[in-house]
Design a protein that fits this description.
The structure holds three protein chains of three kinds.
Chain A lengths: L4 H7 L13 H10 L12 H10 L6 E4 L6 E4 L16 E6 L5 H10 L1 E4 L2 E4 L2 E5 L5 H12 L4 E5 L3 H11 L5 E5 L4 H11 L2 E4 L4 H13 L5 E4 L5 H16 L10 E4 H4 L4 H13 L4 E4 L4 H14 L12 E5 L7 E5 L3 H14 L3 E5 L7 H6 L5 H10 L2 H4 L4 E4 L7 H7 L4 E4 L7 H8 L1
Parallel strand pairs in A: 3-6, 3-12, 6-7, 7-8, 8-9, 9-10, 10-11, 11-12, 14-15, 14-16, 16-17
Antiparallel strand pairs in A: 1-2, 4-5, 13-15
Helix pairs in contact in A: 1-2, 5-6, 6-7, 11-12, 13-18, 15-17
Chain B lengths: L15 E4 L6 E4 L18 E7 L8 H7 L5 H9 L6 E5 L12 H14 L4 E4 L4 H14 L6 E5 L4 H11 L3 E5 L4 H14 L6 E4 L9 H17 L10 E3 L1 H4 L3 H4 L11 H19 L3 E4 L2 H14 L1
Parallel strand pairs in B: 3-4, 3-10, 4-5, 5-6, 6-7, 7-8, 9-10
Antiparallel strand pairs in B: 1-2
Helix pairs in contact in B: 2-3, 3-4, 4-5, 5-6, 10-11
Chain C lengths: L4 E8 L3 H9 L2 H14 L3 E5 L7 H15 L5 E4 L3 H9 L9 E6 L5 H8 L3 E5 L9 H17 L7 E4 L12 H13 L3 E2 L15 H15 L3 E4 L4 H13 L13
Parallel strand pairs in C: 1-2, 1-8, 2-3, 3-4, 4-5, 5-6, 6-7
Helix pairs in contact in C: 1-2, 2-3, 3-4, 6-7, 8-9
The chains are: A alpha/beta, B alpha/beta, C alpha/beta.
């Protein structure tokens, strides 16, 4: 982000000494902003001001890469506070918490059960948060090894240097996060993280202390950081998450320009519903890694759906794959219904069809991810495109029923479709999805 | 330089709207910050949770809801239980039976029920129509009349019927008017302008900007809520400064995650748990983006969301 | 960005009605003019009491109180060559609806008006001129820098200095108009606010043409980043143009009734 002449002027000594060749500091600042001269022409800039200037050209929030290979993930790198302002780039990741007190095998097995596809995105628990609870370095490393065997990326919540070293020895190639630095141990933990080449999690009781610790770590050369908002209370964690992100993006204070860790499982222990609610809040308000006690299918269905919506690029429509989607146990003798591949349309239409209870085959053709009328206007939904879809997907061989219900909004296509698909009975459906339940029941 | 926390409250504020009467009356709005930004300024009124009941009863609900209402046999008794639910701030009576494509009960019959419910509880009451614009146009006018003095919330006036509902609920009978639009900020603003031009005071309007369940195009809801609060507070747009009420359960109990039975989806686990999670996740997301009230159905959801609000205040 | 700010110019001692009202301290004509301007869409009201050498402080104090008490602390631009009058006005000014504006400083004899604004935490209109019509864009931007530097050295926030490129009459100075637009763009690129007596552009034109020319200039100026103008808000075409441009610049949320708001 380029600085304006005024922002540069604020950093100059304002002495109008003319040694830079310009008549005034303001004139000099304007020239620097335009790129006509470089800042080093001023002999009186303080070191702090120079550092601020070089900082100012860096992105406001760093992108931190964790994991390795197929399990590599990016955190941070955001430039806006709200998705409507531009787009959010790095979705939040979920972690399940694991400690020595857990039945590790059972917990990890339950975690890996949640693994499914939703509109082209794999939905699963990306991370395991392995928390050190004083069991000793060897026992901790053994637990970490078990967690690592799942293939998921690890967050090592551990402020004990020996345990951290032992854990990293068994998993550092997989790009874990070492979440263990605080104002009293950050030098040692930073050395361990740097040695292993992994990101370091930092926490502190207050934002002021966190800020000072991050500044000290940066000064020592470690800018591969994640900020843990702590577990003092729900309110405290929320405030810290918002203030950190706002300081970075709105107030352009790059010291706080790092992704966050929120341990929801710790601030709402034993309350899975409350954890789900808070995970929704932190999905919108600035959590990067969300640690849960567990991740049930029920929580996942709602939370991953929310996350997918929030982190969708407003410029790119969400599309479902073209194909046959049997509903309510439909078979080859069930009626066919067609609509576009725009994900929202698909979800609304398939939901209403399900509610009708009538078995039917939903045929989704490639309409460029547009809604019905938009696709029709753009030529992406026409008698030709539907006929082509039916041919290419060999619908006639797969389904015996020859009735096809088309969206009411494109009733105009009926005649042309009858011409292109002579052996099909083309029926005009409803203009709104909500009318489908009644329509399907009546139709049956 | 050390970090210094500088509170950044806006100069503008969301309008404060009171619903109900007496000790249980609630206030919506009034804040000068984004939701729960207590470090900028305290929110004067915590967001509120309403409990939705239907005049068609609870036969088709999940077990936890049925268990809660137990052997209750009429709507008035149901409302009393709803009002006493842990975490409930107000009761929302949905007059579904008025639907001309359903039971098609008469306007008078429905209004009578609304009155009986209002008389039986001291919690604030909101009335939802049957979603048929034409019928609601008559029904909610009548309901506004019979509830005179109750300071109820009438949900909702839409572009198609705002004149009759606005004039009766908002002007003649002193209720609060819900202004409903379907996830469209320009229309939401326009509806507020139209109601204001009709003579309805801004302080008697709450906005229902529409919603969607998490995963079902919720991004439009999030951005509409965010942009509305940004315009209201950041641009001091007084035609968008009305508090926001968001019905959650009417959406979430219609999606697959909440409906599919355990037999159909064995790996998904308990249908009831799914329904609750869908409800609390969608509600929490709306609250995080600025809803001043949400409407829920399940006792566990009401308790959870209410706890979350208290923790964040 | 915030919405475009109209500073209503109709309370001006050059008007016989207003001059008479100020001479006799008669509230009615002044309140009437303020009301019509606010109803028409003005945010700020300019109060020009003229040189007011004999009773400036007293007159300005009276006018500020009168207007703010009657119109819910309406924000005001205090416009006079009598600095003591401006200070007296600010002393009784209520800031609920916005800081007072000092109208105006320039880079020449009136540079000290910047000091006046800085000392009183006010906004200042900073005319980029040294008395004469600036010769070139460079000259305007040079004056802008001088004024800005002066204000910032006094601790002012740059956004509290509203730069005036000096709008010039088109009839006779057509060749200068692009330079004015370029200056506005220059201010905007530095993140600065701007304002000015925009209707100068149509001076001397037939009455029926003035709203058309003023509206065109307003649209072009807003496209280049103008954030405010000192105009007659009762010019309906001008206000409609301003409201439309505010929508197009995403300064204000669209609704079908946006012209009524």
């Amino acid at each position: 982000m380029a600085l304006t002449g005024i922002q540069i002027f604020k950093l100059t000594p304002k002495k109008n000494c003319k040694e830079c060749g310009s008549p005034t500091c303001m004139a000099f600042s304007m020239k620097v902003a335009q790129g006509a001269v470089t800042i080093d022409k001023c002999p009186h800039m303080s070191e702090e001001a120079l550092a601020q200037l070089s900082e100012a050209t860096a992105p406001p929030m760093k992108t931190i890469t964790i994991g390795a290979g197929d399990e590599e993930h990016k955190l941070g790198g955001e430039t806006v506070l709200f998705r409507h302002e531009k787009t959010l780039v790095s979705k939040n990741l979920y972690a399940v918490n694991l400690t020595a007190a857990d039945d590790a095998d059972a917990k990890l097995a339950a975690m890996t059960k949640v693994d499914y596809d939703r509109i082209g995105e794999r939905m699963y628990v990306e991370l395991v948060n392995v928390k050190y609870t004083g069991e000793g370095a060897d026992a901790y490393a053994a637990l970490v090894q078990k967690a690592a065997a799942t293939g998921r990326t690890l967050v090592l919540e551990c402020a004990d240097a020996d345990a951290a070293k032992a854990a990293l020895a068994v998993c550092k190639d997989k790009g874990p996060v070492l979440n263990g630095a605080n104002p009293s141990n950050y030098e040692a933990m930073s050395a361990i993280a740097t040695e292993a080449g992994v990101a370091l999690g930092v926490t502190a009781d207050t934002l002021e202390a966190l800020y000072d610790t991050v500044a000290a770590l940066e000064k020592a050369g470690n800018k591969n950081l994640v900020l843990d908002v702590g577990t003092a209370s729900i309110k405290d964690a929320f405030s810290k998450a918002v203030l950190i992100r706002r300081a970075a993006l709105k107030d352009e204070d790059r010291t706080f320009g790092y992704p966050s860790i929120v341990n929801i499982g710790a601030i709402a222990a034993g309350k899975p519903e409350l954890q789900a609610a808070l995970a929704a809040v932190f999905t919108l308000k600035y959590g990067s890694i969300l640690v849960m006690e567990d991740m049930s299918y029920a929580q996942a269905l709602a939370l991953y759906g929310l996350r997918q919506n929030i982190y969708t690029d407003p410029q790119k429509p969400m599309k479902v794959e073209p194909g046959i989607y049997p509903i309510n146990g439909a078979d080859e003798n069930s009626v066919c219904v067609t609509t576009v591949d725009f994900a929202l349309t698909y979800f609304v239409v398939s939901g209403e069809l399900e509610r009708s209870g009538v078995p039917c085959n939903l045929l989704i053709s490639d309409a460029g991810g547009m809604s019905v009328l938009t696709a029709w206007a753009a030529g992406k939904l026409s008698a030709g495109t539907i006929a082509k879809f039916i041919e290419e997907h060999e619908i006639a061989n797969k389904i015996k029923n020859r009735t096809l219900i088309i969206p009411g909004k494109v009733a105009v296509l009926k005649g042309e479709m009858e011409a292109k698909l002579p052996d099909w009975n083309i029926v005009v459906g409803t203009t709104e999805a909500v009318q489908l339940v009644k329509f399907m029941k009546d139709y049956k | 330089m050390p970090f210094k926390l500088t509170p950044q409250p806006f100069k503008a504020a969301i309008k404060e709207v009171e619903v109900g009467c007496g000790a249980k009356a609630i206030k919506l709005g009034g804040e000068k910050t984004f939701p729960f930004y207590s470090f900028d300024a305290e929110m004067p009124n915590a967001p509120k949770v309403g409990v939705e009941i239907s005049d068609l009863g609870f036969e088709n609900e999940v077990a936890g809801i049925k268990d809660f209402y137990g052997d209750v046999t009429n709507v008035v008794e149901m409302a009393k239980k709803a009002a006493a639910m842990e975490g409930a701030d107000f009761v929302v009576l949905r007059l579904e039976s008025a639907d001309p494509n359903g039971v098609n009960k008469s306007v008078d019959e429905c209004a009578e029920l609304a009155k009986a419910v209002a008389d039986a509880i001291d919690a604030p009451l909101a009335i939802m129509g049957c979603k048929n614009d034409e019928k609601d146009g008559e029904l909610l006018v009548k309901v506004s009349e019979v509830l005179e003095g109750k300071n109820a919330m009438i949900l909702s006036a839409k572009e198609a019927n705002y004149k009759t509902i606005g004039a009766s609920a908002g002007m003649a009978y002193g209720q609060k008017v819900g202004a409903e639009s379907a996830v469209d900020i320009n229309l939401a603003k326009q509806l507020n302008v139209l109601l204001t031009q009709l003579g309805v005071k801004g302080e008697t309007v709450v906005m229902n900007l529409g919603t969607a369940a998490a995963g079902y195009g919720y991004e439009y809801v999030a951005s509409t809520l965010d942009r509305t609060k940004a315009a209201a507070l950041g641009q001091n747009d007084d035609m968008l400064q009305m508090p926001i009420i968001t019905p959650i359960s009417t959406e979430t109990y219609g999606v697959k995650e909440a409906i599919a039975s355990e037999d159909d989806m064995p790996e998904w686990g308990s249908q009831e748990t799914r329904a609750i999670d869908m409800e609390v996740v969608t509600a929490a997301a709306c609250l995080a983006s600025g809803s001043n009230a949400v409407i829920l159905r399940h006792p566990a959801s009401v308790a959870t969301v209410s706890t979350m609000i208290k923790e964040l205040m | 960005m915030g919405r475009f700010i109209i500073i209503g110019e109709r309370i001006h001692c050059i008007s016989p009605v207003i001059r008479e009202a100020m001479n006799t301290m008669n509230p009615e004509p002044i309140l009437a003019r303020a009301k019509e301007q606010l109803d028409a869409g003005a945010t700020y009201i300019d109060v020009n009491i003229g040189p007011a050498e004999s009773n400036g402080p007293e007159l300005m104090t009276w006018a500020v109180k009168l207007l703010q008490e009657n119109f819910n602390n309406v924000p005001l631009a205090l416009d006079t060559a009598n600095k003591a009058a401006i200070e007296a006005g600010i002393a009784v000014y209520n800031r609920d609806k916005g800081k007072p504006i000092v109208n105006s400083a320039d880079a020449g004899d009136r540079l000290s008006y910047v000091d006046l604004a800085a000392a009183n935490d006010a906004i200042v209109i900073a005319l980029c001129s040294k008395g004469a019509v600036p010769g070139s864009l460079d000259e305007i931007m040079g004056f802008c820098q001088e004024l800005l530097e002066h204000g910032m050295m006094l601790g002012m926030e740059p956004t509290d200095m509203w730069f005036d490129p000096l709008f010039l009459v088109a009839k006779g100075m057509q060749d200068k108009q692009q330079q004015i637009l370029d200056a506005i763009k220059g201010f905007a690129e530095m993140g600065l606010n701007s304002t000015g007596g925009l209707s100068n552009v149509s001076n001397g034109m037939p009455k029926e043409l003035r709203p058309i020319m003023d509206s065109a200039m307003l649209a072009m100026s807003m496209a280049n980043g103008l954030t405010s103008a000192i105009v007659n808000p009762c010019d309906r075409r001008l206000i409609e143009t301003m409201k439309s441009c505010d929508i197009l610049k995403d300064n204000y949320m669209y609704a079908d009734s946006y012209l009524d708001l």
